[in-house]
């Protein structure tokens, strides 16, 4: 076996080619662009997810309040015909018919259910307001227009967005079982 002198470097095979500085810089730039594009896509997806979650929660809050109002009789038991709470109906617990919810508002941080129990913290960033108006609408399956009211619940979201959910409630005559 032949020994190589100490002051000489081992012989390498020639023909292999190393990357040049411009090639390395170009590859780094392409990699940086790819990472930025992926990060932007992830960020856009996250934003869409948050917006969808906000809308889902807004819908749940509005639907719960509409259903609560609909659980009350259409006509006021005391015979009042003015939309809104009657004299003495100062709180939600005192509302005795669905139009009493007109003007009802819950600020962010004060969202409760029908029994006054606070919603979870994730819902406390929303606010909600109810508006009720008299209306006449054509309802599919009926031969004539129907008198009633529109219950509109507006939800204000944590990023300033708003959603409005409405429901038409037909007034049924006494012969219809109301």
Topology readout:
Blueprint: H1 21-70, E1 105-106, E2 127-138, E3 145-156, E4 162-170
Antiparallel strand pairs: 1-2, 2-3, 3-4
Features:
178 residues, alpha+beta, disordered C terminus
Structure overview:
With 178 residues, the chain is α+β, with helices and mostly antiparallel strands. The protein has one domain. 28% of the residues lie in helices and 20% in strands. It has one helix and four strands; from the N terminus they run αββββ. It has a four-stranded antiparallel sheet. It starts with 20 loop residues before the first helix and ends in an 8-residue tail after the last strand.
Mean pLDDT: 88
Distance between termini?
Answer: 111 Å
**SS field, number of helical segments:** 1
Total E-strand runs: 4
**Order of H and E elements:** HEEEE
| Strand arrangement across the biggest beta sheet | 1-2-3-4
Domain count, please report it. 1
What percent strand? Answer: 15-25%
Q: Sheet bearing the most strands, described?
A: 4 strands, antiparallel
- Please state the overall shape, judged from the principal axes of the Cα atoms: elongated
Class by SSE composition: alpha+beta
Task: Please summarize what this structure is.
The protein has one helix and four strands; from the N terminus they run H-E-E-E-E.
